[in-house]
Amino acid sequence: MSHQAHDGKLRRLRGLRGFTLLELAVVMAVIGILVASVTPAVVQRITDGRIDETRVEAQSLYDGMVGKPSDGRFGFVGDMGRLPSSFQELAQRGSLPVYTTSTTRNVGMGWRGPYVNIGTSATDYLGDAFGHVYTGASSGQVRSAGPDGISGNADDIVFPPAAPMTGGTVTVTVKTILGGKTIVDPVGYRVDLFYANNGAEASLSDAASPFSFSNVPMGVHAVQVVKTSNPNAGTVVSQDTIVVRPTSTTASELWF
């Protein structure tokens, strides 16, 4: 090969090599621009998806605590008479009383969970989509620290927005017919209300009209009228089953 031909070949190789490096630099620059512009959108989309997933999960936990009172389902509160002290109580009974209907008028009470779908592992329901632990069980609110993992700032996810009321009021009117006339709240009788207290049956009594009970846990309860005067003091003369919904008043009439 002549010297002239050899130099021409080197020039062509150098030109090819230079073009390839330049092309690679341009491609890398374009990729960098695309990554810089696309990455924030992708990250935001992933974050938004996790926020939506956390909100759905938070509502599921809330429903496990209080059920759907408008549909006559009262969740953990209806069975236990209180909010859970931790979200673990929604899925694990531990030492809580087992559900039973061996109560006044066979009103069921006690733990009959699980009240939530525990997911793919025993603790899956305890954490949000960002890997942070939910808090707020005893308040009735499900709280997630949100994307930044810091509680108490603007990106927190809280459901419901305000702490729920889980109790209502019960009023009972006692009626009887005496001498052809209707007597309202006759003297010598009391009203007992039976409800779940930490899953076990407890009762409240009101010995004077108007018969009223406040802060009664939502759920199904039994009420009865008891004679307090002689003769036959202590005799149950009337009873019924009532439904208590949060922030509402349940009015019941008991006849004998």
3D architecture notes:
With 256 residues, the chain is an alpha+beta fold. It folds into 2 domains: 1-161; 167-255, Immunoglobulin-like. The protein has helices at residues 3-66, 75-80, and strands spanning 142-144, 157-159, 167-178, 181-184, 189-197, 200-206, 211-217, 219-227, 236-244, 249-255. Strands 3, 4, 7 and 10 form a 4-stranded mixed β-sheet that branches. Strands 6-5-8-9 form a 4-stranded antiparallel β-sheet. The radius of gyration is 34 Å and the shape is elongated. It starts with a helix and ends with a strand. The relative contact order is 0.13.
Q: How many domain units?
A: 2
* Main beta-sheet annotation: 4 strands, mixed
> Which structural class fits the helix and strand makeup?
alpha+beta
If you average the pLDDT, what whole number results? 89
* Order of SSEs: HHEEEEEEEEEE
Helix content: 25-40%
Q: Give unreliable regions as ranges.
A: 13-17
Count of helical segments?
2
* DSSP E strands, number: 10
Strand content: 25-35%
Cα gyration radius (Å): 34 Å
How many angstroms separate the termini? Answer: 126 Å
Task: Give structural attributes.
256 residues; alpha+beta; Immunoglobulin-like; 2 domains; 4-stranded mixed beta sheet; 4-stranded antiparallel beta sheet; 27% strand; elongated
Summarize the structure.
The chain is an alpha+beta fold. It has helices spanning 3-66, 75-80; strands at 142-144, 157-159, 167-178, 181-184, 189-197, 200-206, 211-217, 219-227, 236-244, 249-255. The chain folds into two domains: 1-161; 167-255, Carboxypeptidase-like, regulatory domain (Immunoglobulin-like), CATH 2.60.40.1120.
